[in-house]
Design a protein that fits this description.
The chain has helices spanning 45-52, 73-80, 97-107, 112-125, 141-154, 171-187, 199-205, 223-228, 233-238, 334-339, and strands at residues 7-16, 19-29, 34-38, 60-65, 68-69, 83-86, 159-163, 191-195, 208-213, 216-221, 243-253, 256-261, 264-269, 277-282, 288-290, 303-314, 317-323, 327-333, 347-351, 357-361. It is an alpha+beta fold and 373 residues long. It has two domains: 7-233, 3-Layer(aba) Sandwich (Rossmann fold), CATH 3.40.50; 241-361, OB fold (Dihydrolipoamide Acetyltransferase, E2P) (Beta Barrel), CATH 2.40.50. 38% of the residues are buried.
């Protein structure tokens, strides 16, 4: 008999204000597993975290901890003492950094010696040791987030639930705190569930990604699977496939297919049959931009004359929105942008390998999925 999951949800339904916000037939969190939950605003991500802690009343379903069902309120209280919840905004006491990190330990009745040891350990883990005596009101935004995380993890919970703990931070601070958090969770063998809008963060930190929409889990799998093999257009959009094209399969030879999109043909790989409606999903980093037609010197397929419609900066890349007769998004480095003398309005050639196009069958009569901004 296989061991019970650390935490399990079965047939869970939660309503808030008369509206069902969570509808999860099954969810499992294993020992030492790091799960990222992504989805648009209103998808039910935060409600799922609160339900895991039995902080929201359930309309239906069960919560099990190591196979034991959480029934009475005393069971729920006991479960919460094994968990920690970190919200977006760090709600710190008007006290020193040390006292803030020690707060949860004192509430649990740890003696002074063990409290000092734990506080010292977690101040070091989150690079706060030199500011133990500083007043919390004098902290920067990033420092306050570190204190908030140190306080939550110092109680050494079995499960830590994180609701957008890095929101509104600049990228270098966000990445540094995320690295310290991941290292601490891994080294202490905690399990974690992280709610985030940042798909790159989910890919970097987690063992498994759960995509939610309208209270339901749409896909749950290893990060590489969710990123490269999304089950539908909604998941593809969540995972950064910024080009998702409606098309119809015209020809197939073995695993090679030709899809018609806006009157143009795209070579791809897939199982759909001629006549089937599909989505062609393309990640921006898979689009190659050239100023000279590559078909003149190579056997490249999927080469499209294009006009750069707009240019925007996205972190270390520049995002190009292209008009190829259909919309296409590409990322280029600053060096490539300058070397190719690219600019809005310029004519270029965009190419994509057939192996870089993820084809998803579109169910007959299905509506367009809700796009993720």
């Amino acid at each position: 008999m296989s061991p019970a999951s650390l935490l399990a949800l079965e047939g869970l339904a939660v309503a808030r204000g008369g509206v069902q916000v969570v509808d999860v037939p099954s969810f499992r969190l294993e020992e030492r597993e790091f799960v990222a939950v992504i989805g648009p605003n209103g998808a039910g991500k935060s409600s799922l975290l609160l339900a895991m802690m039995s902080l929201l009343p359930r309309a239906a379903g069960r919560i099990l901890h190591r196979g034991r069902e959480i029934r009475a309120e005393r069971d729920a209280v006991a479960l919460r003492r094994r968990m920690a919840l970190v919200l977006q905004d760090p709600l710190l006491f008007d006290a020193t950094v040390y006292d803030n990190v020690a707060a949860g330990l004192r509430l649990r009745g740890l003696d002074r010696r063990e409290t000092r040891r734990r506080v010292s350990t977690y101040l070091e883990r989150f690079r706060l040791a030199d500011m133990a005596d500083r007043a919390a009101r004098r902290l920067s935004g990033g420092e306050a987030r570190r204190v908030n995380l140190a306080r939550a993890l110092a109680v050494e919970p079995e499960v830590v639930l994180l609701d957008e703990p890095f929101s509104s931070l600049d990228l270098p601070t966000r990445q540094a705190i995320a690295d310290d958090l991941e290292r601490t969770i891994r080294e202490t063998n905690m399990a974690a569930v992280l709610v985030t809008h940042d798909q790159s963060e989910a890919l970097r930190l987690s063992d498994r990604i759960v995509v939610m929409n309208r209270g339901a889990i749409v896909q749950s799998d290893a990060p590489a699977v969710v990123m490269n093999h999304p089950v539908d257009g909604f998941v593809a959009s969540c995972m950064g496939m910024e080009t998702i094209l409606d098309g119809v399969v015209r020809r197939r030879s073995g695993y090679e297919i030709v899809v018609e999109v806006a009157g143009r043909e795209i070579d791809a790989l897939g199982e759909p049959l001629p006549g089937e409606s599909v989505y062609c999903c393309i990640r921006p980093e898979q689009v190659l931009i050239e100023v000279v037609d590559p078909t003149q010197t190579s056997s490249a397929r999927n080469v499209f004359p294009a006009r750069i419609a707009s240019v925007t900066s996205v972190g270390p890349y520049l995002k190009l929105r292209l008009d190829c007769g259909f919309p296409l998004v590409a990322h280029v480095t600053g060096e490539s942008f300058a070397a190719l003398a690219l600019a809005a309005g310029k004519s270029v050639f965009a190419s994509v390998k057939a192996t870089a196009i993820h084809v998803i069958r579109r169910a007959e009569g299905s509506a367009q999925w809700p796009r993720v901004a």
